[in-house]
Write a structure and sequence with these properties.
Rossmann fold, five-stranded parallel β-sheet, binds adenosine-5'-diphosphate, about 45% helix, about 140 residues, alpha/beta, binds magnesium ion
């Protein structure tokens, strides 16, 4: 499961609520640099996250959650290719939450992402699609009836 959403969209909260043990780039930052916000070591963070996902795929774990923003196709391609190389089904879990809501939640938490960073992310964000290789796109929260 490739989780997609802005900071503050509720990705980590949801994954915790379902008792998942996601591979989270923020957790890897904490492991490597004692700081979940350190963006200066992203190459190592993503290499380590990729290695962990690969280990889970080789172990044939039934579900692997990758918790990162994954807002662009380029961000997601790594995970799609890795899953495909292991013949794994790959779904996007898309936190389709309005930017204003994410900003408000972000402002209220301890680890605040600067608002201009959220605006930059929003400008680059592309919704996940079947066309880029996902087997399914699941919206979270699910569309209301
Ligand atoms: N469904 C929700 N409704 C209201 N607040 C939420 C919801 N999900 C998360 N939050 C709050 O929003 C903030 C960001 O959530 P978090 O799960 O850390 O987002 P992300 O991992 O996507 O950055 C947290 O303070 C959290 O308590
Ligand atoms: Mg998070």
């Amino acid at each position: 499961m490739v989780v997609v959403g802005f900071p503050g969209s509720g990705k980590s909260t949801y994954l915790q609520s379902i008792g998942a043990h996601p591979i989270s780039t923020d957790s890897v930052r904490l492991l490597l640099a004692d700081d979940a916000t350190d963006q200066s070591i992203n190459a190592r963070v993503f290499a380590a996250a990729r290695y962990l996902v690969q280990q889970r795929l080789e172990l044939r774990r039934p579900v692997t959650y990758l918790d990162a923003t994954n807002l662009t196709r380029r961000d997601r391609r790594t995970w799609l290719e890795l899953a495909r190389a292991h013949d794994a089904r790959v779904e996007a879990l898309w936190f389709d939450v309005p930017l204003a809501v994410c900003k408000a939640r972000n402002a209220r938490r301890t680890r605040v992402v600067p608002e201009y960073v959220l605006d930059l992310m929003a400008a680059r964000a592309i919704p996940p699609s079947l066309e880029e290789g996902f087997d399914e796109i699941k919206k979270c929260p699910p569309p209301s009836k």
